[in-house]
Structure formats: structure tokens, C-alpha cells
Amino acid sequence: MSARAIHEPRDGLTNRDEVGGERDSMGEKSRQREQRSGIGNYFRIFRFCDRFDVLLYVLAAVASIASGAAFPLMTIIFGQFTTKFTETSTGSSGPLDPQAFQDSVKVFVYWFIYLFVGRLVITYIATEASSVAAIRVTRTIRKTFLECTLRQEVDYFDMPIGSGSVSSQVTTNGTRINQGIAERLAILVQAISMLFSSFIVALIYQWKLALITMSIIPAILLVAVIGVPLDALQEARIVRFHSQAAVLAQEAFSSIKTVHAFWAFDKVIKTYDKYLLLAHKQGDKKSAYVGVTNAIFYFCMYGGTALAFWQGFRMFEHGEIANVGTVLTVVLSINMGVSSLSTIAPQLGSITNASAAAAELFSVIDKQSLADPLSLVGERPESCEGNIEIRGLSFAYPSRPAAKVFHDLSINIPAGKTTALVGASGCGKSTIIGLLERWYQPNSGEIVLDGVNICDYNLKWLRSKIRLVQQEPVLFRGSVFENVAMGLVGLQQDLPLEQQMELVEAACKLSNAHSFVQELPAGYHTQVGERASALSGGQKQRLAIARSIISDPKILLLDEATSALDPQAEATVQDALDRVSVNKTTLVIAHRLSTVKRADQIIVMSKGNIVEQGTHSDLLKQDGYYSALVRVQHLDDGNKTPATDIVSENHEQDHVLATKEVDTIDAQTSGIPGRRDLLLGTVNKSLFSCLATMIQEQVDLYWWLCILAAACLVCGGSYPAQAVLFSKLILVFNHNSDEAQKTANFFALIYFIFAIANMLAYLVIGWVGNRVGQTITHRYRYEIFQRIIRLDQDFFDQPQNSSGALTSRLSFVPNSLQDLTGQNMFLMLVCVVNVLASSILSIASGWKLGLVIVFAGMPILLGSGFARAWFELKFEHDADERFAESAALATEAVTSIRTLASLTLESRFLDQYNASLDKIAASALFTIAITSLGYALSQSLEFLLMALGFWYGSKLISAGEFSVSQFFVVFLAVIFGGQGAAQLFGLITSMTKAQLAANYVLWLRTLNSDICENAGNSGLGPQGDDTIGIRDLEFRYKQRPDSLVLNGINIEVTPGSFVACVGPSGCGKSTLISLLERFYDPTSGSIKIGGQAIDSMSPRLYREHLSLVQQEPTLYEGSVRDNIAFGLQYEPRDEDILAACQQADAFDFVSSLPDGLDTPCGSHGTQFSGGQRQRIAIARALIRNPRVVLLDEATSALDTQSERLVQQALDKAATARTTIAIAHRLSTIKHADAIFLLMDGKITEHGTHEELLRLRGYYHQMCLAQSLDKGLE
Fold this sequence. Notes:
By secondary structure, the protein is of the alpha/beta class. The strands form 4 sheets. The chain has a 6-stranded mixed β-sheet with strand order 6-7-8-3-9-10, with helices on both faces. Helix content is 61%, strand content 9%.
């Protein structure tokens, strides 16, 4: 077995050159965070304590100190008792009087009972107080982190660490902090108290022997001083790489349809694994000093005992020590003090983990915001007129400082008037909105509102006077009512719910949303789900408009506000916007010019400059740039009727469909057959079953595991061996002879050999155990991600499986598994071997006393331990769900930061997040109370067993049934076994979390993807021609079996033809695309290509046949090149990428970027305008050279000129391929070979553009609604 098997956990990992390249690209900020990730961050955690937390920690510290001091006190009693026993056995105190002997023993027995009661109480107090305080402090840090995150300027969220990793930060790092300041901190203080108390007792009883034995301490301290900072530094690097992996995972989960459509699993998984391998390599670097630290600790502990006995007997021989009890008190005290260092070591690991996690959070908490939305600073006038002036504005995005968007731009936007901005995509229109919202700061110049620079206003006040409807509408998890009510400001938010509902309904009526909302299963109380994925684009847009107008804002910013609406809905909503815009300052950005022709002024922009300005009629007369745009958008039809009339005749259509498309996400989902398996999250296997399964899977690590098992046998077996050696050494003190000196020297030498053996064994456990743990954790982290990402869309439709919740679990589960599969698993094995071997030894050496002590103590120990484990497991399961919910909330806030900021929802989200954390903290109190009692009992029961052993042992010795030697072997074996049991149950928290995590992995394995490549379809792709036949297609979402979304669809698409589907929002168009992409399989009917049913094909080969361009384009963190090549199974040449850019009309703007194809897109593509993102997405679709192209509103985000060019490119590309398009903008599909009109999930009209016009039906009316001006007919 080679070392490579441990170091590289799996074939196919990224090669070392790639890893090295990634390492070389580390940012300076990351290195600075590493430098700041020292132990000082740990102490800083406690600055987040309030007075009650401080009181709890003081109480815990005092109790821990007292608990730690109890054990050294035991050595005094034990030493005196040993003296009494040896004097009795040798007859040095006179003839044996059984009754007097037993009476004298009772005194010691009572002392042990007192110690039991005292340690039980104070250990309970220490554990309870520290755990409660930790929950509270961690809650405060989590709250503060999210608050400071939401305080940051929007520019911060364009960077990867400012976005997707927030779920990882608040869960994983929060959990690590909690572990480092809770029970493990109490154990650490207790161990330190035991260390000092032991030395004090030893010094008091025999200072010379104590000082000689304490000579081992400097070596231990030196290792700790060097090892702890190194461990903290490595842990900070590991956390950073895992955070980067979490960003990627969150992006992939939130855009899972894009990942599936492009079959990009392998590429995304490989990139994710690259980060895991980087973290793995850093974790492996910990092995050396973890192993060396453990080895030195245990060598010093056993070596110190050997030294103490060797020197102790010499001093006894020379009369410097009076009796064996004194030697035993000193030896046990020093031994206990050194063994406390072995307890300190793993707790220091938790502290360094907490320190590294805190450094990550503090890097955000310490960051000063340039535009703090929660700040109270700034002017807050009582009124706002809305007069806006842009004066000499120059601006470049911070990520691209060399690329100037504006240079000396000046615009006047008069109060109470409507100003429209039109122009090519990327000309700076949306940037103006970002500057007005103060998402970014100008490089020079100023923006003035009512004569005051907007930077002088209070930011929250400024944004509350402005309402924005964005090109890509964002709704949040919650009900329709809650989403629309988010637009309320000031005192409106305090109105009774009935009045708020009236305002919500009024706003929805204005935005043409009321009717379809009423048709939803729960009306305004219907849950919309993550990113409102169950609603159509038009439905989302109308709710977003309602949210923006509900507060009757003074300034309206409409960034393509109606781009996602069908013509009828657009006409109605535009009419509503025209009405609500009266006496408001309205800035409209539009590519669809029908929405701006009523504007008081229209500003035409190009490359950041104003090229034309005037009213619609003025600009038409100029016959310039604007006039040309108008002519391009005109649809030929000579018979017009008012758009509002058209809508009034047909508006009912959308209402009926709403019930089909929307998802009522509620508890009933769990009762649907086949859906409950997506919600459980566990298979309820025991810890031992989970552990056995995990070990069986590590076939290539078996030799290493065998070596570790052998090391554990040596370490665990050392404890009962010590019992024998101790008893032998004690008896040596009863003899004064040269032979006794030789015997003492021999047994001291044996102890020294024990020290060397344990040093080597613990070196193996630390070094190899860490490497094995890192490897196993890497594997399961990889497995979880690749299993989740390959699951069907049904899985991601569940509210429990939001992208934030999944990212949270992706961090929590592997970290919990590492607690089990790393050193802890092998330390647990050491404890198990210790308990079993010590119990066997005690029974074999003296069955009467052994059976009594073992079977009196073990049931109580096991009962308390398992009860604690059960309560902790239940709590962890509930907490996992709640933390996933809170993480999803935090992720949603950060990934939708622009919407959240524009609506000034920071406080609202923080209140929801804080309430979620408060529930978790409250629910933890009962569990902490129960588990603390179990832990306290396991830590104190040893004293009660000692009392029982002394009492019953004295009876057996008095009766002559037991020798002193037998008694000490049995008694010491039970003591060592009890200590092992206490250590074992001290690991229960890690064990229960690991059991929960392992069950989650095993549960994921039970989930099978129905749409996957398997033996039955492998290699089967589309063959023959590309004729697409859709026959009798019906579809119901599995979680909504009563809602028929598509009903009897029949479509024939001939090869190379261009087919379009149109219809009102919510009619099922996008669902049809989802079925064509095979995100879902039909409920009945079939889809065939080339005569073959697509569900019989390999989905990989089938999807390679297609390309999809969605309405809301998804870009990922990475370069333009990476995004265009996304999903390709090979690395394309730059020439191929640029050719795809030319086809998508993206070549010019990509070439103008500072770094060209290497320009980073930013998180979710935020570095580009909507139109630029869409063109990159189109280039990504075309580079695959697909035979079928699916366009779901592919040009909706483009300006008129770009749309025309891209449409020409798509038309040209369509000559050799089949194209199926969904469109609201009918100019893009008028040349289609066939157009199908969907109404209520059915096809009601079909034909060519001219044929449908002649029918003078619904399609004809849609065309009329989009005509711009009669004068252009």
C-alpha cells in the first residue's frame, strides 16, 4: 500500500499543476486573513458576551476549576488508604482487627461519596453554564456577522467571498465557534485546573520528588506553544478553501437547471473537487505536528511516571519519604497532571478550529462599509420633491477600473416627470440606476436630489423614497402577501394586517396581478418558494411591480419592468404604471419602445454618452437613432384596437392558468407518494452501523486502518497493564532490600518502555489518523456534492432543499463526519479497548470485587451515556433543520442583495434570521440540561465506584478472601477503565453529530435519479433526422398532482424548422421547454425525436443534442471564457469561443473588456448588464453547435439593435438546426415556420404569422398590443 492512497483519495483528482496554479493565485486578502487567524481571535469571541453570558462563563469557570481539583484530592485519600492497606497487610500497625480495619476504611469511603456528589453537581453546573453561554454567544456572533454582511456596499457582493459562502460561514464557522467555547472549553478549564491542582498536591506532599517529576513539563509546553499557532494557521487555510467550494456549490444549486441542461456535472464537480483537494493538502500538513504533539504528550506522561517511581523508591530507601502512600500520592498527582495535558490537546484542536472560524467571520465584521444601509447618519428631510440632476459624472466599476462606463455625463431628470433611457445593451443605462441607488460611488461628479448630493442623505431614507423594478424580478421565500408587503415603508409597516392586506390587494390590482393571485390555491397566502420558481416570469414581474408601487414612492425606477410580460399583461401593467407615475419622478429603462413613447423625455445613450434627447414625437421627426429603433420594432398590421380593450377581452386566461403553474409549498407535500423520500434526510441507522459502513468502504485504506487499530490496541491495553505494574510497585515498598531496589528499577524500566511504545503508537494515531480522516472526509464531501447535483429537478423543488439549505448541509455534514473519522474515531477505540481490557482484568484478577464494581458502574455509565446520545441526536436533527432554514434565509438575502437593498429590507431579514436563531437557542436549553446531567454523571461516577471498591475490598481483605495485590490490581483496573469510559462519553457530542451526518449520506444514496444515464440507455442518443413529435402530452408536477399544467399538447416540428410558442404568462410555455430538456418526464403522452422517445435515450447524449437559453441567464463565478465553455466536454480554442461571441453579438463588448475572455464575470454575472449576460448565455448555447436550440425568451434582455443582430444570428444559425422559441416579443418570432398559441395548457391556435393574423384571434390581438405607432404603418 503506497502513501499515495492516503494522500490522493480518488482517481481523477485535479493534477498538482492545477493545484499549484490555484495556490499561486491566492489573493492578498486571503493571506492577510491567514496572518490574522491566530489564537487572539479566540479570545475576541468573548467580546460578544453580554452580562448574563459573562456570569454564566464565570460560573462555569469556577465550577470547572473545582471539578478539576476534585481528582487530585482523590490522590490524597487514595494515598492514605494505600498506606492503611499496606500497613494492615504487613502487620506493621499490629494484628489485623477486621472490624477496626473496616471502620477506618469507612472514613475514606465517605470521602469518596462526598467527592462524587460534589463533582456531580459542579460538573453539571460547568457543562450547563458553558453550553448555554456558548449557544447565546454563537447566536450573537451569527447575528452580528449577517448584520455586518448586509451593511456592506453592493460592490462587496460582486466578489465571491461576499456572496455564496454566507451559508457556509453562518453554519459551519458558527458551529466550530460553538464547539470551541461550549463544553470543550469547560473540559479545558477543568483539565488545566487538574494540572495545577495535581502539581500543588504533589509539591505539598513531597516537593523534591514533585519537582524532579515535573521536569517533563517544559517539553510539553514547548510543543503546545509551537503546535497550536501552526494548527490555527493551517485550519484558517482549510476554512478558506472550503468557503470557496461553498460559493461554487451555492451557485450550482441555485441554477441547477442550467447545470442539467448543459450536462455540466463533471466540470462543476471537478472544479469543486479542486477546492477540496487544496483543503485536503492543507489538512495533510497538520499530520506531522498533530502526531508529534500526541507522541510527546504521552511519552512525557508515562516517562514521568517511570521517573517518579524510580526516584520515589530511592528517596523512600533513604528515609526522605515516610511511606508508600506519599509516593503514590505524588506519582498519581503528577500522572494525573500530565494525563490532563492529553485531555487539553484535543480541546486545543477545537479552540484552534474556533479561532480559524472566527477569523473568517471577523474579516467581515471588521470591514467598514462605504455605504451602510443601517446607519442613522445623514439627512432625512420630511419631504422629497424628486428633482434629480447628474452632474459631470465619471464612473468605472471597481472590478474594472480601466473600463470607463461614463465620462463627464450630465442628465437632468425633472421632478414629477417620466424620463426614459434607451440605447444598446451595455451603454450604461442600468449603471445609472445602480448609482442612484448608491450601490456604487461615482469616481467624480455628483448626483443631486432636490439640490443635495445623494451621498449626504441617510441611505435608508434615500432608498425608501425610491422604488425599483428590475429586469430580472426577485421574490423571496414566503407568501404572495408577504412579498408584496415588503414594499411598505415607515408607519405602513405597523398597520394592522387587515389594512396591509387592503394595500397589497390594491397594488396587485394596479399591476394586473390580483386576478391570478386569487386563483392560487391559498390566494394571497400561497407560498411562492425559493426564487419564486413556481411562478412564471410574467407573474413574478407583476408581483414585483405591485411591491414597488404599494408605498406610493416619490421616485420610480423601472429597469425593463415589463420585459417578462406577455403583450396583454404588458399593456395593462404599462397603463397602470402610467397612472401611478403621475406626479412621480419616473426613470424608465426599456428596450421595448412601446413602453416609453409616453415619456416626457427620452434620452438615447450610446457607449456612456447621450446621443439624442427629446420626446417620442420629437425624436421620430429627427429620423435618427431612435427612429430607426422604432421602425425595427414595428409589427405589420393595419387594423388596430386600443390595447386596453384587447386586454379586457382576454385577461381571464391568465387567471385560470395561475392555479396550474404555481406551487403551493406546504406540509401536504410530505404526504404525496414518492415525495416523502425527498424530505426525510435520514435512514435512522445507529452510530455503529454507520461507522461499520464507512469503514467497509475504505478498501484502499485497510492497511492504514489496521496499523491504526494496532496502535489503538497498544494505547488502550496500556491502561490495564498499568494496573498490574502499579500494584507490583506498591508492594515493592513493603520490602527493604537490595532485591527490592532492583525490582523497583525493573518496573520503572518497564514503565519507560511503556512510554516509548505509547509515544510511537500515539505518533501513528496522530499522524496517520489525521491523514486518513482528511481522506475520508474529502471523499464524503465529494460524494455528497456529486450525488446532490445529479438529482432530478423534483428534489430541488422541495422547500427543504433550497440552495442555501443544501450548501449549509454540504458544510455541516462532512465537518461532523471528520470529527468521527479523524483522530476521534481512534481515540474512541483506545477508550473502548481500555474499558474492555480493564474490566476483563479486574474480573480475572478477583472476580468477586471485579464483578461488583463493573456491573454496578457500567450499566449506569452506559445508561447515562446513551441517554445523553439520544437527546443530543434528537436535538442535532432538529437544529440541523433549523440551521438549514436560517442559512437559506441568509443566503437568499445575500444572493438577492440588490433587491433587498433597494427595498431597505435589511432590518426585516435580520429580524427573521434572529428569530430563527432565537428558536434554536430556546429549543437547546432542555437538551443541554439533560445531556449535561449525563456527562456530569459519567465524569463523577468513578468516585462512587472507588467508594464501593474500598468498602467491599476491605471486607474481602478482612475475611482473608483477597490479598492486597489482588485488590490493587482490580481496583486500579476499574479506575483506569472508568476514566476511559468517561473520556468515551465525553466524545458523545461528536458521535451524535457524526451519526446524523452519516445518516444523511446514507439517505442520499437511497435517492435515485429517474432521469439519468444507465445501462439501459447508455450510448443511445438521437439518431436519424431531428423531427420532434409531441403527442397527447399531459403534465402534472409530482408535488401538485391535482393541477394539470399541460393538457393534450400535440406538436410536430420538422428538422431545421423554426417553431414558436406564445401565450399569456403562466400558460405552460416554460413547462413545455422543461419537458423538452427532460428536466421532468411527462405524466402521459410522449416526446420523440427522430421517431425515438426521449425517455429511452441517454440524457447526456440527448442534451448534447440541444442548447437552452433561458429567460433569466445564469453566469457563474469565473471568466467569460469559462462561462461560454461551460458544459463542454473539451477545452475549446479561443477562435471557437470568439466565433460563438460573434454569432451572439457579444464579440465587440467582450473584446472591449480589459482582460477580454479572461475578464471575471463576478458572482452570478453581476459585472455585466442584463443584455450582456444574455449574449454570453447565447454564445454558450451556440458554441456547442447544437442540432436543436431552445429559446426561452432568449432576447428579452437585449436592446432593439442587439436583438435584431442576435435574431439575425439565430435565424442564420437556424438554417442548419431546429429552433423552438418561447417569446412575448412577437417581432422575434414573426418569421417562424409555425407558431403555437397556448391557452390554459392547451394549443388554441397555430399557423404562420400571416395565417394567425388572418384568423383575427388572440394572436392577432397580441400583435396589435405590441404595435408602436400608427404613423409607421
